[in-house]
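Tutorial, part two.
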Amino acid sequence: MRRRFADIAATALTLGGFAVAAVLTVVLVLPTAGEPATWEPRPSGPLGPADRDFLIKVRQAGLWEIPTGQQAQQLAASERVKDVGRHLVEDHTKLDVEVRKVAAALDVDLPSVPSADQQRWMAQLSARSGAAYDRDFANLLRAAHGKVFAVVAQVRAGTRNAEIRKFAQRAVVVVMRHMTLLESTGLVDHSALPEPPSPTIGVKP
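Running the prediction step on this input gives:
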């Protein structure tokens, strides 16, 4: 593999900077001999890496949002924040049952602990109470839902698997509702959220 990479890189150097970048990109993206296929056949359609990542992210969302929603009942000052927390617990409990069922049917291993970032957010919230808890609860969860929403929407738009498509449809609705609920607290700082991507000039929808 090293000799192959060196030979390709040496050839590319004679073609100019653009060619170098193009050739190296192909080498890095294409799988090498012996690597497992990223797409796997399933009765409901091919299962791709984005499909698996989607199921993992939905599972991890529940692993931190369910206990955090429960925690809000004790640490939040606002009744609205407590109410939003109850909705998160209820919805993610149902969604977690669904994601484990879909993952089992598609033979996808799911995590049993939140991600490192999610564990950090949980620790941050555990150190807060009252109004400070309310503010961090709304902003951390709203930012997290925005990231998950982007993943779910892209998978729903492009998956080749019927089971993933059906579950992503359900997840899009839940994540959108949660963003709206969190914004209803009046505590979300929208200026701190990532900006939407710039429009692509000259590309028709």
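The chain has seven helices and no strands. In part three we will examine how such features are distributed along the chain.
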